[in-house]
Amino acid sequence: MIEQADAVVIGGGILGASVAHFLTRLEYGQVVLVEKSRICGGSTQYSAAHVRQHYTNEVAIRLAVRAVEMFENDEEELGGPTGFTRLGYLVLAPPGQEQALIDVVPFQRSLGVETGIVSVDDVAARYPELDLDGVALGCYETTAGYADPVLTVQSLVRSAERRGLKVYEGCRVIGIATARGKATGVITGEGEISAPVVVNATGPWGDRTGRMVGIEYPLELSREHEAHFDVPDCFGDLPVVGDLLFNHNLMVYAAYLLVPLVWLVLNRTTWGLKIKSAGQNPAAGWGCTDQPAARSRRPASPRADPRPGRAG
Ligand SMILES: Cc1cc2nc3c(=O)[nH]c(=O)nc-3n(C[C@H](O)[C@H](O)[C@H](O)COP(=O)(O)OP(=O)(O)OC[C@H]3O[C@@H](n4cnc5c(N)ncnc54)[C@H](O)[C@@H]3O)c2cc1C
After folding, report:
1. Which single residue of 72, 97, 106, 162 has CA 20 to 30 Å from 16?
2. What share of the chain is helix, strand, coil (3-state, %, to 5)?
3. What is the CATH T-level fold of the domain 7-49+149-211, as seen in this structure?
4. pLDDT for the residue 128
5. Rounded to the nearest whole angstrom, what is the distance from the C-alpha of residue 44 to the centroid of ligand 1?
6. Is 5 helix (H, G, I), strand (E, B) or coil?
7. What is the pTM assigned to this prediction?
């Protein structure tokens, strides 16, 4: 194992991979990534990986606008394929929440987001599959979509490796060395690496890593549950939908539809999902309206490591 580096990144999820990628692009020197399990073995692999810009604060919006540009040019900017699939992002608001959309959309547009207010009639005409009962207003962002989180991490790490990044998988950091209040390296199960810069990118384990140097991060962990449904062939394309009515996200991957399970349980409904069930195909549990048949199906995204659960 290498004994000296210019920067050590702890954690091989999206944050660690991204930091390592951009440090090597900046020619920071010898960068090392230490991962206790395997690259993308943590929470990133379960991410729904939405790539959208519908945020309300300026910093988040600017970062998201830049992120969309990067995903659009993933080979050049992120070092390889990311499985970015541009579907758009539709936000649906119930009565009482319209004003929030009316206020934020012009602000987002002023920061470069391609977004606009859409009426319920607009949404109904474009997406006849959606049951819009209880929806008062929407907004639609054209450049959003989703990525493949595992592929994205792999591309970031591999491109950084081509620039000299050293990766140690199956290598747990058990302590952080310090001197005069500053980190001076990491202590792993395999040996020690001294470095003037140590990056804590350990995600849900971030508080434990922080405690190694006496920092308390007030993390609260929660588990998300999601449901996947096979969609019939005649089903049309939908954007990623953020439903403020029931506070859930809905998205259609190539062959199945995903929705957080908690919503289904709370609403005690089998095929609600804000999707119409016309009953043409009772065996599948729902049917199709005529219109979606005219739509072409989106090609399958090259998911590197498809897994059943996807969060955030
Ligand atoms: C494309 C994309 C879009 C996303 N969009 C959204 C979104 O719209 N909304 C949202 O809320 N979230 C979003 N996310 C974020 C996502 O839901 C997760 O929060 C995020 O991926 C977590 O990444 P992480 O690197 O912080 O943690 P992790 O992926 O969990 O990585 C941490 C790593 O640290 C390692 N580790 C822990 N302790 C140690 C140790 N002591 N020594 C060595 N290694 C250690 C773990 O094994 C793990 O691999 C998105 C993610 C992606 C990739």
Report:
1. 72
2. 30, 25, 45
3. FAD/NAD(P)-binding domain (3.50.50)
4. 84
5. 4
6. coil
7. 0.85
d(CA 294, CA 159): 41
- Measure 220 CA to ligand 1 centroid, in angstroms: 14
* 7-49+149-211 and 85-144+222-294 agree in CATH topology: no
| Residues 32, 164 contacting (CB under 8 angstroms) | no
What pLDDT, in 10s, does the model give residues 48-91? 899 999 999 999 999 999 999 999 999 999 999 999 999 999 99
219 closest CA partner among 7, 9, 43 = 43
Amino acid residing at 16: G
Please list the ranges in the chain whose pLDDT falls under 50: 263-273, 277-311
Closest CA to ligand 1's atom 13:
312
Nearest protein CA to atom 48 of ligand 1, as residue: 42
User: What fold, for 85-144+222-294?
Assistant: D-Amino Acid Oxidase; Chain A, domain 2 (3.30.9)
SS3 20: helix
Which strands make up the sheet holding 145-146, listed edge to edge?
Answer: 50-51, 145-146, 85-86
